[in-house]
Amino acid sequence: MSLLDPLFRQxxxxxxxxxxxxxxxxxxxxxAGRIRRGGRTLLNFSSNDYLGLASHPLLVERAGDWTRRWxxxxxxxRLVCGTLExxxxxxxxxxxxxxxxxxLLFNSGWQxxxxxxxxxxxxxxLGAEALVFTDRLNHASLHxxxxxxxxxxxxxxxxxxxxxxxxxxxxxxxxxxxxxxxESVFSMDGDRADVPALAALAERxxxxxYLDEAHATGVLGPxxxxxxxxxxxxxxxxxxxxxxxxxxxxxYVAGSRALCDYLVNRCGGLIYATAxxxxxxxxxxAALDLVPTLDAERARLQxxxxxxxxxxxxxxxxxAGSSTQIVPAITGAEENAxxxxxxxxERGILGIAIRPPTVxxxxxxxxxxxxxxxxxxxxxxxxxxxxxAWSPR
Length: 393
Ligand SMILES: Cc1ncc(COP(=O)(O)O)c(C=O)c1O
Prior knowledge:
- By secondary structure, this protein is α/β, with parallel strands linked by helices.
- The chain contains 15 helices and 14 strands.
- The strands form 3 sheets. A 7-stranded mixed β-sheet has the order 4-10-9-8-7-5-6, sandwiched between helices.
- β5, α7 and β6 form a beta-alpha-beta unit.
- The protein is globular.
- Pyridoxal-5'-phosphate binds next to α5.
- The site of pyridoxal-5'-phosphate has 14 residues, from α5.
- This is 8-amino-7-ketopelargonate synthase.
- Its EC number is 2.3.1.47.
- GO terms for molecular function: 8-amino-7-oxononanoate synthase activity.
- It holds the Pfam family Aminotran_1_2.
- Its cofactor is pyridoxal 5'-phosphate.
């Protein structure tokens, strides 16, 4: 019993009444694209394992091999004695693939965004308050980084670069370094930012461009290494994760050598955290070997997503601006999302309901995420289950 339990319970009851209470439900992986939950095997359309790499033998083997050779933990933070040769090797491999001077590993995508943004918005570095332009649908970790830095976000309408340009022009006379912070693929809508246009905007307004590639890394762009490459060298910082299409865990920042060296000296989330362990680095290294070879899987993934969107549109289901492997089915009300999710589970499909505050009120949805590990038959099963469950008798 804790002192605050009555308040916690009150809060949870309020969430119950609004259909927005969440809980943790253990699952057991049953091979790529499937999980067991509550004694039943379900087709899993809710994971971010877009290439099926989480269970790939090469990742599993290298994670085990590096653990046996290097131990279970890194034993210290990067700046103390936690930088193993393995960190440097993975960072060099990543920078080569991203086509940047340098790369830096972080313990998670959340931690990278939450810690890197405050380091960049540092008044001592910039000499004035940063002017930070952010997409309204940016991920919670990007908001957290801005909040931790104490900056006021200047929010532009989702993916509306005309609006962004207007906001930049309105503040043209004000002092302070401009930052544009956005995602290349939006996690809940599955749509893409126009990276070449963003890069041109950043160039015109002398702004630093920060691109979160969490859902593009492994899936889109040349050799699957994300959309930052389309920015013609004008993306100042690309962050991404190893926790989604790359099948493992951890995150990265890719950019100039000076940027990475600065973060090593100024970024609290890197300085004051224990370095990633050898198992995680082994999985990262194997994923980086595999990803450039998976063009056929990426093409198939996008073709499956196209079929799913067409099927949803045929049923009158809105899919927001999806043009990637993430295909939302917008239900609007929270209880409708929960009810659809339950009906799909009865039909052997895991499609998790996403509700506020993860998405704006009135836009609750089932977020379907496809994986190259899904078979054509899996996709057919999903499409007919949704057709059956969407308008319950
Ligand atoms: C856009 C975006 N950025 C960052 C993150 C955080 O990454 P991680 O799960 O590696 O902490 C996520 C994960 O949900 C995300 O969707």
